[in-house]
Amino acid sequence: MKIRILLSFKEEEFDSLKSDYIKEYKIFEQDGGKIAFALAECKLKKGEEPPKLFEYYQRFIKVYRMVDGERKFVCINYPARMHYNMYVRWFEDISRFKEKYSDLKNDIVSNGCKIFGFKRLRYCNKDMAYTMPFAVYEPRNKNRQKLPVLIFLHGRNNGGETNIVPFTECMTVVKKIKKGKKKNPCIMIVPSIPKSCGFDIRVKTDDKTLFDAIFNELFPLLKEKYPIDENRVYLMGCSNGAGGTWSQIIKHPERYAAAIPMMGYSDADEDKYFEAIKDIPVWAVHAEDDDNVLIGKSDYGVDGSDILVEKLKAAGNGKVKYSRYKKYGHSVAKVFVKRENWCDWLFEQKKK
Fold first, then answer.
1. Domains of the chain (ranges plus CATH)?
2. Pairwise pLDDT comparison (8 vs 231), residue with the higher score
3. What percent of the chain has pLDDT over 70?
4. What's the pTM value of the predicted model, to 2 decimals?
């Protein structure tokens, strides 16, 4: 059996690139250091153990599906070459745009014409690893009164440099926001991070992650530019963006008034993480038959909504809601957004 996997190495691990198993690699600048992406390959005979370099390969390439209500192993299928090419293109884009805007320090520039009433913008900061596109919708507000803000985090592979693709995922949300703009006028912000790269869901590290580090710098700028009510900052995410939603409220509980993670997951496994958000209203959404993001425990060392909601309740959060669907799989977010009255619930929430 041939095994092919994508690996990444920090600068201090570059000696591993000399391995005979490494078929191809590229090195890029990142956060003042360097990172390498490599394509590794080996052949195994039946029953043979993989080399140490491949010790984690199973967690990446085992594919499961829900069959008759049970989670069953289907096959081994990991398109490592495709992912390697995607990461290389992504980092080449990062380098290209960073060079283009290298003279800008903490500034917002136009990123194209309006789309669906949203301004397309880009946050540039020469100290950051990435210049992040994002879109902003601001309703008419002659008196510049303070307004709530909803930040929507897209799923993996639904970002990109044009900040257009995220709207394929959040248009139903946008429509509801605009439909209720007289009752609940709201600013909406839609970040767009590179395709193939996700919103980092880790809460156990203090490392500067792509989105978290950038948004920490961008958000104060947004508060200066737009009339944002800091007591009504809401977060909504889909799939990997829901993982990012859990990560954001755990890392910054003082920032958010409420959150709606749809098909979410997290590596948070200690009581302290949930005690930190016991006062934040959370409305979780998931489907039992979701085989992309499992509703319970997964092989990737993360927990799905069933476990996260129980831990949140155990921490004393009496404001948690959970829409748990029997069906709809990884498309359950669209069903939830259309059917549930989440708008009124969300805009009722305020920080104490």
1. 2-98 (no CATH), 103-348 (3.40.50.1820)
2. 231
3. 85
4. 0.74
Dist CA 297 CA 214 (whole Å): 30
DSSP symbol at 138: -
Angle at 218 between CA 172 and CA 133, to 5 degrees: 50
CA dist 111 and 162 (Å) reads 7
Residues 6 or more apart whose Cβ sits within 8 Å of residue 235? 150, 151, 153, 245, 248, 249, 256, 258, 259, 260
For the stretch 242-295, pLDDT in tens is 999 999 999 999 999 999 999 999 988 889 999 999 999 999 999 999 988 999
Give the whole-angstrom CA distance, residue 171 versus residue 127. 33
Give the separation between CA 133 and CA 214, rounded to whole angstroms: 11
Residue 324: half-sphere exposure toward Cβ, Cα within 13 Å: 14
Q: Assign 58 a pLDDT band (cuts: 50, 70, 90).
A: very low
Q: Which residue has the higher pLDDT, 177 or 98?
A: 177
Q: Measuring CA to CA, which residue among 343, 275, 347, 349 is closest to residue 311?
A: 275
In the chain, DSSP finds a helix count (H) and a strand count (E) of 9, 16
What is d(CA 289, CA 112) in angstroms, rounded to the nearest whole number? 39
Neighbours of 288 (CB within 10 A): 17
